[in-house]
Amino acid sequence: MADERTYPQRPFLAVSAAIIRDGKVLIVRRARPPAYGIFTLPGGGVEAGETLHEAIIREVMEETALAIEPLGLAGYREAIVRDADGKVERHFVILPFAALLIAGEVVLNEELAEARWLVPSELAALRTTEGLAEIVQAAFAIAAAHT
What we know:
This protein is α+β, with helices and mostly antiparallel strands and 147 residues long. The chain has two helices and eight strands, in the order ββββαββββα.
C-alpha cells in the first residue's frame, strides 16, 4: 500500500508505549507490512497539531482499546528501510514512552495480530523490533521511579 510514508521526502514521527501492568509489559505482533509478524510495542504516527502525549494515548486506544497514562520517554529508535537500489523506502523516528495501564482489556484492531503481557526476560524468545528489550528495561525504570 503506497502512501506518503513510502519513499518519503522526510522522516515521519511516531510514538509507541511500553505499557506496564503487574510487572509485565504489553507486546503486540504486527499484522501488516512493513513490520509484519514482528513483536513490538503498540503505537503509530503523530498527527499534525497533536502533542506526543495525545498521540500515544490515541494510538494505544485505537490499536488496543486500552486507556494509559504516559510517564516519560524511554528512549528513541530510528527505523530506516532501503530498497534494493539503496533508496530510502521508509524512515520513521520513534519515541517510545513508558506508560501505566489505567483501564480496559486488550481488543486488537486490524493492524495487530496478537497481544501478550510478558515479563521482560520473555522478550528474548521472540522476533522483535530492534532495541525493544532496552526500551522495555528503560520503561520499567521510569515506572519504578513513579511508584
